[in-house]
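fold-stage: in
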Amino acid sequence: MVSAAESMILACQGGDDLRDRLYRTVGYSLERNQTLGSGPLATAPIGQLETIVATVLHQAGIPWNESVSLAVEHLTKRMVAPPAADEIRPRANLVSLLRAFRDAEIRLAVATTDNRLPAEKCLEVLGIENLIEQLLCGDDRTSPRKPDPAVLLDIAESFGAPIDQVIMVGDTVSDLKMAKAAGAMAIAITGGAGSREELEQQADVVIDSLEEISVI
């Protein structure tokens, strides 16, 4: 987000006021170098984020069409592009962990506000694409999208499982509220968007690594 925002500010010759307004609106703390857990950057699909950013630019005096073009060129195009392999850093031995889940007949799904192309690329680079049965993305048009609790209800229905047997692992307050609203268990993982204190208020359990989840 930072590189996209800074190139956009440079392109429209904006100053510190625009910079502060833009980061504050999308939910990013420059002081902490952290995405805020309840802000649009952490929770909104890319299409919504594009509109939010364009609105900030327009409110700064830039014509609407130009604002949209700037948001598309400097933000959207970067966020929908497949990530480079060196940008993806797993925080656990995901292949081993998810294989253990699969062998224990635990079925796996991923729900993300990212678009499908970069999400699929991420799973491929991590080597877990064949371990994930369902992938729900922010640009899907025929299924509910995060943070709608129907995302988890649909996953439960497709897996033939009651919702109280679904465990959602997420790193934002929005993820956890979605799980609670659906009736699923909510596990928060630190290190993403949102502080431990924020996550603890919503989660059933807080972990620091996926490897803390074990098959009994």
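fold-stage: in (second)
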Amino acid sequence: MHRNREIATTADGTPRYRAQYSKKTKRWRPVALLKPKAYSYIPDLLVQIFQTRRSVPGRVDQRIVRSAEDPRNIAANIAIIPRPTVQQLLSEHKSRFTTE
């Protein structure tokens, strides 16, 4: 459903990239941004969730507290080195798939 999306482009048609940190190589690398996903299945999923929720006691809008050990509370990223600019990453990047 969300696979095989095209690469997102800017207004002038150039591909968009972001920086991603690799735990294995301990380096930053550029990754192409993809076009936004289409969530056409969400209305059906919401209907199924609320039908299931009707049988469970309690309120539908009750909040769940995140624990202190939740990984989302630790850090923005795991990089050891500071993040370089995307332009710098693109200039240094060598792809296995292109031959120049």
